[in-house]
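Researcher: Sequence recovery benchmark, item below. Answer with residues only.
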């Protein structure tokens, strides 16, 4: 895996399972799968849960070489056997269900910030 490319998007190497980049004519598309990060149910705290597949989300990231970057993330979904609750792993590059990466939000906020503000 290309660690330098992960650093460009502020993604830690230890949370990534697979990472592929598809260079298209008008944009970059990055498919990224994360390693499981939940080891207990957030509702009841038990460790008896089953996998219910992956949740696919498209997230906008910071442009590279003036081309938009679309990240397609896959986050594991689970169902607790004990309390019947459904939950997902945490997406480490986005806030909740937002459609922008954390680095994109920080970049937007920095560009909106006036240079003469205190």
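Model:
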């Amino acid at each position: 895996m290309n660690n330098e490319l992960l650093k460009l998007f502020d993604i830690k190497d230890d949370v990534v399972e697979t990472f592929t980049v598809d260079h298209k004519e008008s944009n970059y598309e990055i498919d990224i799968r994360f390693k499981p990060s939940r080891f207990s149910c957030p509702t009841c705290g038990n460790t008896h849960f089953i996998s219910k597949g992956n949740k696919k989300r498209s997230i906008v990231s910071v442009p590279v070489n003036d081309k938009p970057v679309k990240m397609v993330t896959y986050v594991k979904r689970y169902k607790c056997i004990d309390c019947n609750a459904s939950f997902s792993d945490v997406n480490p590059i986005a806030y909740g269900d937002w459609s922008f990466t954390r680095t994109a939000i920080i970049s937007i906020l920095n560009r909106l910030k006036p240079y003469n503000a205190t």
